[in-house]
Amino acid sequence: MMTASQITLDYRSDTVTRPTPPMRQAIAEAEVGDDVFSDDPSINRLQERIAALLGKESALFVPSGTMSNQLGVLVHCEPGDEFLCETGCHIYNYEQGAFAQLGGIVARTIDGEGGLLDVEQLTDKIRPPNAHLVRTRLMCLENTHNMAGGRIHPYEQVARICEWAHEQGLVCHLDGARLMNAVVASEVSAADWAKHFDSVSVCFSKGLGAPVGSALVGNRQLIERAHRKRKMLGGGMRQAGLLAAAADYAIQNHIERLEEDHRHAQKLAAGLAAIDGINLTPSEPETNIVIFQIDPKIGAAENLVEELARDGVRMLAVAAQRIRAVTHLDVPESEVENALRIVKNACLRLHNN
């Protein structure tokens, strides 16, 4: 067996990607300045490029997707306001409730069908004007939906939800951490997805393969407010053009290649589904995330994850019996059969113990 230090196939997340040699070259050659004074040409260039790609006026480069999402909430809401979101979404579950800690903001969660919402579920969720109640202010969606197995929120549903929200006087924020995966898989442009939202968060350090960074996009006034909030959160950076150059390279060179990750995920999912004691949820991945349920006869998800790691494959336990595997540019599609063999053998060992 391999030791943990010899692991070669890391499916835990697409955040584990490392800069490619051409990306490292772009980093080495980056022009830099002091971004707190808006003097970093590489950051300014990236912000202009991502704003144009999403059809918005302006963008703000930030260290992480969590910061970008929280800025999206903070610029729209005041203390005592409420936003609507799907129960399993990242903003609600995996960002420490920062909206409450930082902004005095409340979340109202709605159970989606496989992580997806439709407008009929939302029409009775707006609080009436009343001094006893929070003010419903914001609608948040996530696309693709991480914990729903990288599902794409269907375009027409997104359009209907945002149209309804705007008619009700709400504003809309998109957690588009993996929006480019949705763009490639759906063949709907980033600008068409983004046009329904007042703000969009996009991440460069997941499937696009940059080492650090996300961006918030929106109109100029919104981004000016976000810039001030970013300073409050400690997100003002100096010669961060080194990081922006990597992100800029990623959006110019790594978007179309996401299709390879999607194809890899489909092969991985098909192989996993053929292993006794494993069930896929959903049965076929739409993008680069595979989530599978293991039978209790195999044991707990954590036990299987530990067993896989000893044999050179890393995956992530996300619940007592659920495991996530994410495909990305650092795990070759050609290794899928090797990964499946290791998973099958590990399941057999645990089942027989």
Could you outline the blueprint of secondary structure elements for this entry?
Elements: E1 9-10, H1 21-28, H2 41-53, E2 58-62, H3 65-74, E3 81-86, H4 90-93, H5 98-103, E4 106-110, E5 135-142, H6 155-167, E6 171-176, H7 179-186, H8 190-194, E7 199-203, E8 214-218, H9 220-232, H10 241-253, H11 258-273, E9 278-280, E10 289-294, H12 301-310, E11 313-314, E12 316-319, E13 322-326, H13 336-352
Parallel strand pairs: 1-11, 3-4, 3-5, 5-6, 6-7
Antiparallel strand pairs: 2-8, 7-8, 9-10, 10-13, 12-13
Helix pairs in contact: 1-10, 2-10, 11-13, 12-13
Give a verbal description of the structure:
By secondary structure, this protein is of the alpha/beta class. It has 2 domains: 4-16 and 257-352, Aspartate Aminotransferase, domain 1 (Alpha-Beta Complex); 31-253, Aspartate Aminotransferase, domain 2. The chain contains 13 helices and 13 strands. It has helices spanning 21-28, 41-53, 65-74, 90-93, 98-103, 155-167, 179-186, 190-194, 220-232, 241-253, 258-273, 301-310, 336-352; strands spanning 9-10, 58-62, 81-86, 106-110, 135-142, 171-176, 199-203, 214-218, 278-280, 289-294, 313-314, 316-319, 322-326. It has a 7-stranded mixed sheet, sandwiched between helices. Helix 6 (155-167) links the parallel strand 5 and strand 6 (171-176). Helix 1 runs antiparallel to helix 10, helix 11 runs parallel beside helix 13 (336-352) and helix 12 packs across helix 13 (336-352). The protein is globular and about 60 Å long. Residues 1-5 have low confidence and may be disordered.
